[in-house]
Amino acid sequence: MTEIDPKLFLTAIFNAAVAAADPERTIRDHLPAKPKGRTLVIGAGKGSAQMAAAFEKVWDGPIDGLVVTRYGYGARCERIEIIEAAHPVPDTAGLEASRRLLAKVQGLTEDDLVVALISGGGSALLPSPADGLTLADEIAVNEALLASGAPIAAMNTIRKHISTIKGGRLAAVAYPARVVSLVVSDIPGDNPALVASGPTVPDAGSREDALASISAYGMKLPASVMTHINSPAAEAPRADDPRFARNEVHLIASAGVSLEAAAGEARRQGIEAVILSDSIEGEAREVGGVHAAIAREVATRNRPFPKPVLILSGGETTVTLRAKGKGGRNSEFLLAFAIGISGAQGIHALAADTDGIDGSEDNAGAFADGSTVSRMRAAGVDAKAMLASNNAWTAFNAVGDLFVPGPTGTNVNDLRAILIR
């Protein structure tokens, strides 16, 4: 396989994974029955605008609607209004979008249909603080969550207990209309109630679960927030609430499906592929170290998989912030991975977020190989010091190995692809 360019190969793998979550194809396969009354489209997430544009193409009846997405992630729609707001920390545009979404679904009848287009990122895009709380409180909670190292399920359980829109509350307001949720999952395990903190899909997570996570991860939240979560007013609707009886939830894209597509592309190019898991969680640098150990074992001992091989994994790692460097969970994973394979021959890797953005910068992730650390050193960058200061973006930028595909229009979590020749 000497004729394969590793970066081009890994980019093709990423593109295949993203294509498998293409909203037009997946929405076409999950269209709900047309209602007697109105069809209203709502949505939130980093892929929601592209989902809305796709829905307009495949739905041949009258519709109107409103969806909110991240700044720069908009798409051209004729009948569905697109609002852009801040992610990963909420802002006033998101607050106004939440208010308008709640108003949009009021006054509907049982003959009406609400189609909810939900994708990852909706939690931050839909700030709607509970009574007695403010946008500043919700921002403080979001910042604490992002720095805590807590898994996404725990984060979203906390978020839904300080909100008037998350945890199924948006669907409850739409009652008695039927709500059909089309969900693109970025959650390990693919529980649709946890994607975007489930504005239209309730789950069983309780405020006791939220309090347990706050304690377990040592989060320091505003006193007003703690008072609210400790009160019965924080309780979210239960999944067996009769207001949800007619509703439907369809998972239309997920990490598992995209990983299978990535594996298929590798095999098409003559490389065997193995999938470790589509739901790997944990501290990004630690997961990176484990993946590096597996890659070295294959490279040096031809086990547990014979080479050449592409090792794939998905899920969502977390980063416990120790400093204020630039980066995201994929670049931090990959910097730890690069340190772990430093000097090894024939190992090439890409770690990237399938939505096209890793953290707060414009890259989806980065590339690495056995020469990455030495090239960083030649550029005046100490890889271990960069990792210690959460500064992976700066490290990869110094050697020109950032991966910048731009917004993809979907979001099925992280893709880690390791080619061993």
From TrEMBL:
Domain MOFRL-associated, first and last residues per copy: 10-229
Keywords for this protein: Kinase, Transferase
This protein's name: Glycerate kinase
Domain MOFRL: 310-414
Domain of life the protein comes from: Bacteria
InterPro entries assigned to the protein according to its UniProt record, in alphabetical order: GK-like_C_sf, GK_N_sf, MOFRL, MOFRL_assoc_dom, MOFRL_protein
A Gene Ontology term for the protein's cellular component: cytoplasm
PANTHER family: GLYCERATE KINASE (PTHR12227)
Single GO MF descriptor: glycerate kinase activity
Kinase found in the keyword field: yes
